[in-house]
UniProtKB/TrEMBL annotation:
GO terms for cellular component: plasma membrane. The keyword Lipoprotein does not apply. The chain crosses the membrane at residues 12-35, 76-101, 113-134, 140-161, 182-200, 240-262. This is ABC transporter permease. PANTHER family: OLIGOPEPTIDE TRANSPORT SYSTEM PERMEASE PROTEIN APPC, PEPTIDE ABC TRANSPORTER PERMEASE PROTEIN.
């Protein structure tokens, strides 16, 4: 308990950001308890109603309660964004460490593939992949993963190149340590802090990219309660019923801002040069 209090006193910004992130996650987990209506129940007689005591965020064109749909949208959007970040972190870090540590043909092959992926505009390539695979939230995650792993691969490779020349790596080789042990015991721990900081910062941008694909029709499909799709459905009513875009947009803005702040504060905590 004393260590926790000391940590909070030393890192108040991180503690506040962590509380905000936990609040967002709590809303997503307990959405069924917090929702006032079934988010998928259409009541055409109540279509496009303004915010009121009965429907706090108003209703959409199908008469569905927007407040309930925004809450359920947190589950889908957060799950997809966190899954996406975990995938690109795992794939990019794995390939980057192998590339940087072993070098040679493996390094050349991985980096040339990464160069090829970077040469295309990321969102355009993601749209192409999502269009080929089919429009749904799972394929949107796969599509963005295909174009986003290169960032982590390059970062992990540059860190692995520095680590492999350290004296303790040479000592481990001399003492007969297996390559797998060296990678797991020495290289990965040296790479992981920077990768985690980058991943935490990228959660917000990944969520925006997923919402963008859904907005363009290449992500979540109706009647899924997903924030990007809700923005797409509400754009036709922007002047007549602005709440259809305001509340999902605010949900995206708040969530992205919270995770960006968490990434910045996590960098301060894990920065080895910090006093």
């Amino acid at each position: 308990m004393t260590k926790t209090v000391t940590f909070i006193k030393r890192n108040p910004g991180f503690a506040v950001c962590l509380i905000l992130v936990l609040a967002v996650l709590t809303v997503a987990v307990f959405a069924p308890l917090l929702a006032t209506y079934d988010p998928y129940e259409a009541v055409l007689a109540d279509a496009v109603q303004a915010p009121s005591a009965e429907h706090w965020f108003g209703t959409d064109r199908m008469g569905r309660d927007l407040y309930s749909r925004v809450l359920y949208g947190a589950r889908i959007s957060l799950t997809a964004a966190l899954s996406l970040v975990c995938i690109v972190m795992a794939v990019g870090t794995f390939l980057g460490i192998l590339s940087g540590y072993f070098g040679g043909i493996l390094d050349a092959a991985v980096m040339r593939i990464a160069d090829m992926m970077v040469s295309f505009p990321g969102m355009v390539l993601a749209i192409a992949v999502a269009g080929i695979l089919g429009a749904n939230i799972r394929n949107a995650v796969i599509a963005i993963s295909v174009v986003s792993w290169t960032k982590y691969a390059r970062l992990a490779r540059s860190l692995a190149l520095k680590i492999r020349s350290r004296d303790y790596i040479a000592a481990a080789r001399v003492t007969g340590s297996r390559t797998s042990h060296i990678l797991w015991r020495y290289v990965l721990p040296g790479v992981l802090p920077t990768i985690l900081i980058t991943g935490a910062t990228d959660i917000g941008s990944m969520m925006l990219e997923l919402a963008g694909l859904s907005f363009l029709g290449f992500g979540a499909q109706a009647p899924t309660a997903e924030w990007g799709l809700m923005l797409n459905e509400g754009r036709a009513y922007l002047t007549a019923a602005p709440w259809l875009m305001v509340f999902p947009g605010l949900a995206i803005f708040i969530t992205v801002a919270v995770f960006n702040l968490l990434g910045d504060s996590l960098r301060d905590v894990l920065d080895p040069g910090r006093s």
